[in-house]
Specification:
Length: 605
């Protein structure tokens, strides 16, 4: 992934505009191809809603003038004022129907748009879920988990919220403002100019406040990030903090961070909450001035009572959308930027597809061979230049070397977590490039130094390597891994539910469960990455014995830092800077007096 892409996955607070609005909208239109009819109905509904909302005040002006004339006539004649069906009744009913129809179209478009946004969000989440399974390991190495999760949660939520309400508000606001201004100019140019002057002042104030609100919002978000980081740090490092008696220092840092957050939140909330009263104050000033001039025109007979009240309806219909227009545009820009980042994730380069006509290994024997393998994380930086070795079925292959020598990379290439740049890797004489990844990885079992257990029962965690295994098979695997005894001492045995991060059992016990998981899989090739590093010496001895039985007649690759665990290996690969600098047995390498002998003697001097 290039540097630009990596910047796009920064997990900071983002209010940016999209880089390519037209391209994003075009792709969005393609993404919702099955909902084009729904959008057409929404658009028609918006048009009818806008037309009816503009027509209602105009018709109300006619009704008010009609009723006002009848009231004056009744007052002059000294008769009681009354409304009959023919003299105002049917007109009032028609006005009521106009408002009801406008309300019905508003409900229809809101319902359809809400479903549209949720369907789009569901589709994109499913696409991301499938995409993540097709991404290479290099993508996850180069991007923080929080940044990727932000695309799935924050960006999609922001997009969904904006499309549920923002699009409708934007369309209806544009139509309402245009229609209302046309009708207002028709009634009175002077009053409309007064209205526009105050609206212009409102927009200037809105822009000024919005810019400062954004600054305070960014500051608050950074403070939130700082507090979150401190909480995570203090929680995960609580043992170290207590051991060095730094509780007061930790508490002080947290207090300062939360105080900064409170100060930033107070400023941001003040700006956010002050904008509406301030804008309303300006609008009310304009309405008072309109009322004064309009009242004078009413007394002079230039305006009728119905026109006067209708004008104020148009003022209310256009003033609020006009002041919200800047916020709606910013919201839509932000949502499009979020959608653009989601699409950018979906466009990330995927793993090389499996060959269309794959080879297949039904039951692997475990012969592994590297032939002049080359590899680099980037084309410019080659890590492995010429790695060759051969492992026969049933052999124990140890991989040793200093940190960063390329031991784990060697295993990742064997599992096709990364694709080689040159050469060949063979399993039972077949090029692993000609196998499907699923078929290849079914031949392997891995026990990593970092244990991974999910929230569920112990039995479910062991059975993860072979879904559908019987309880008896799971127990047998646990016994082989020397885990059965401690499992049975737990309150619920194999049905004990592991909590978050499996903290209700020890680190060593977690490792035993991952080893039991591999016993249950019963693979042809084993990969052990310092599998006994987290257990005590006595447990290590038992596990080594169990591993000896498990590794019998199976090829095993052991990444080891403690050389005492691999002195019986059939082949030891000594790696340095991504290259195998020595290979042989323990005795032959000691006799050679090279890098392995120096490393061994440094541990047992």
């Amino acid at each position: 992934m290039d540097d630009n892409n990596m910047e796009n996955f920064d997990d900071g607070f983002d209010l940016s505009a999209p880089d390519n609005v037209r391209g994003t909208l075009k792709r969005l239109w393609t993404s919702v191809s099955d909902q084009h009819r729904r959008l057409a109905v929404v658009l028609i509904s918006v048009i009818f809603y806008t037309v009816l909302s503009i027509a209602a005040p105009l018709y109300s002006a006619y009704i008010v003038d009609l009723l006002w004339a009848k009231i004056q006539a009744a007052f002059q004649d000294g008769t009681a004022f009354s409304i009959s069906w023919d003299s105002g009744g049917k007109d009032l009913l028609f006005l009521l129907l106009l408002y009801l129809a406008a309300g019905a179209f508003y409900l229809l478009q809101s319902f359809l748009m809400a479903s549209f946004a949720e369907n789009l969000s569901l589709r994109l989440r499913n696409e991301i879920s499938q995409k993540l399974s097709r991404l290479p390991l290099s993508f996850f190495d180069q991007n923080k988990p929080g940044a990727v999760l932000s695309r799935i949660t924050n960006d999609l939520d922001k997009m969904s919220e904006a499309f549920q309400t923002g699009v409708l508000k934007l369309f209806t606001a544009a139509g309402m403002i245009a229609g209302s201004l046309i009708m207002m100019f028709r009634f009175s140019i002077l009053l409309t100019i007064i209205f526009l002057i105050f609206m212009g002042l409102s927009l200037l104030v809105t822009g000024w406040v919005s810019a400062r609100t954004l600054q305070h919002a960014l500051t608050r978000q950074q403070c939130v990030s700082d507090v979150t980081s401190l909480v995570e740090e203090n929680y995960s490092g609580r043992t170290i903090i207590k051991s060095f008696n730094l509780e007061q220092d930790s508490s002080g840092r947290m207090h300062r961070a939360t105080q900064d957050l409170a100060d930033a939140s107070r400023k941001a909330d003040f700006m956010i909450n002050s904008i509406n009263p301030l804008i309303r104050l300006i609008n009310r000033g304009g309405q008072i001035l309109i009322a004064v001039f309009g009242g004078n025109m009413l007394l002079n007979g230039t305006l009728t009572v119905g026109t006067f009240q209708a004008f104020f309806q148009y003022v209310n219909q256009s003033a609020e959308p006009l002041t919200e227009l800047a916020f709606m545009i910013n919201s839509m820009q932000s949502s499009l930027a979020s959608l653009e980042r989601v699409y950018r994730l979906l466009d990330e380069p995927e793993m090389i597809p499996d060959t269309k006509v794959p080879d297949h290994i039904e039951q692997a024997e475990g012969a592994v061979e590297f032939r002049h393998v080359r590899f680099g994380y980037t084309p410019e930086n080659t890590l492995m230049k010429d790695v060759s070795f051969k492992a026969d079925p049933g052999q124990k292959i140890a991989v040793v070397g200093s940190t960063g020598a390329g031991k784990t990379t060697l295993i990742n290439l064997l599992m096709r977590f990364y694709e080689i740049s040159g050469g060949d890797i063979l399993l039972d004489g077949k090029n692993i490039q000609d196998l499907t990844r699923a078929n290849l990885r079914n031949c392997f079992g891995m026990v990593l130094q970092d244990t991974w257990l999910f929230e569920g029962t112990i039995e479910e965690n062991i059975a993860y390597s072979r879904p559908g295994a019987s309880h008896e098979e799971i127990v047998a695997a646990a016994k082989a891994a020397r885990a059965d005894f401690f499992i049975r001492t737990l309150p619920h045995g194999y049905q004990t539910v592991l909590s978050n991060d499996a903290e209700n059992i020890s680190v060593g016990q977690r490792q035993l469960l991952t080893i039991a998981r591999v016993f249950l899989r019963d693979p042809a090739v084993l990969i052990l990455d310092e599998a006994t590093s987290s257990v005590d010496t006595r447990t290590e001895i038992e596990i080594v014995r169990a591993m000896g039985r498990l590794m019998k007649n199976r090829t095993s690759f052991v990444i080891a830092h403690r050389l005492s665990t691999i002195i019986d290996a059939d082949l030891i690969l000594v790696m340095q800077d991504g290259t195998i600098i020595e290979q042989g047995t323990h005795k032959s390498l000691l006799a050679a007096g090279g890098a392995y002998a120096e490393l061994y003697n440094s541990q047992f001097a």
